[in-house]
Design a protein that fits this description.
The structure holds 2 protein chains of 2 kinds. Chain A is mainly beta. Chain A has no helices and 9 strands. The radius of gyration of chain A is 13 Å and the shape is globular. By secondary structure, chain B is an all-beta fold. Classes of the chains: A mainly beta, B mainly beta. At the A-B interface, strand 4 and strand 8 of A face strand 5 and strand 10 of B.
Chain lengths: 112, 113
């Protein structure tokens, strides 16, 4: 079973920020939060990951709560091409228990 | 840099037939993964290689599935014999090391009739 809970679907207006929540209340101290997305008929694409601190890259920002039990992926200016399924995953980074469990993800639809 | 290459992209076979999928990871990536993705669900890990060694194959149905990565580069996943329930997308991914970001190929869509 996936260790995260995400809404099944979300809509966002083009040009607005898309905020995708993820609950991971059983996260362990050595587990990172990863986000991937999957555009229709393509393989998943890595977006960002973090441990405790907020992270930002050219694609998105990741906000992790202080207790690390939830996080939010932010796409600052969503475009139609951001329509995809977004997966939030918690996983250790090294070791034999490394196991990326994707779950069903959130289907984000960006509308014109 | 070239991405992860998979072939074929689509495969249709009759049940009980064998099928093989091929994956060429990104050059220099030591870790290779095979995932299975059913319609409407996220990918599920089948097997993970560190170089040529399978370090996690606990989810691979070993009665009919096999995989190899003989020289620590490209890899083959085989199903013999295929069953109707094997219809899915088979994804290959690679990463520079375990725990680093994974790069996925486009997948092979298998249909078993």
């Amino acid at each position: 079973d996936a260790k995260t809970t995400q809404p099944t679907s979300m809509d966002c207006a083009e040009g607005r920020a898309a905020n995708l929540p993820c609950n991971h209340s059983t996260i362990s101290g050595n587990e990172y939060v990863y986000w991937y997305r999957q555009i229709h008929s393509q393989g998943p694409q890595y977006i960002i990951h973090g441990l405790k601190n907020n992270e930002t890259n050219e694609m998105a920002s990741l906000i992790i709560t202080e207790d690390r039990k939830s996080s939010t992926l932010i796409l600052p200016h969503a475009t139609l091409r951001d329509t995809a399924v977004y997966y939030c995953i918690v996983n250790i980074k090294t070791g034999n228990n490394n196991d990326m469990r994707f779950g069903a993800g959130t289907r984000l639809t960006v509308k014109p | 840099e070239a991405g992860v290459v998979q072939s074929p992209r689509y495969k249709i076979i009759e049940k009980k037939q064998p099928v093989a999928f091929w994956c060429n990871p990104i050059s220099g990536h030591n870790t290779l993964y095979w995932y299975l993705q059913n319609l409407g669900q996220g990918p599920e890990l089948l097997i993970r290689y560190e170089n040529e060694e399978a370090v996690d194959d606990s989810q691979l149905p070993k009665d009919r599935f096999s995989a190899e990565r003989l020289k620590g580069v490209d890899s083959t996943l085989k199903i013999q014999p295929a069953e109707l329930g094997d219809s899915a997308v088979y994804l290959c991914a690679s990463s520079r090391q375990q725990g680093w970001e994974q790069f996925f190929g486009p997948g092979t869509r298998l249909t078993v009739l």
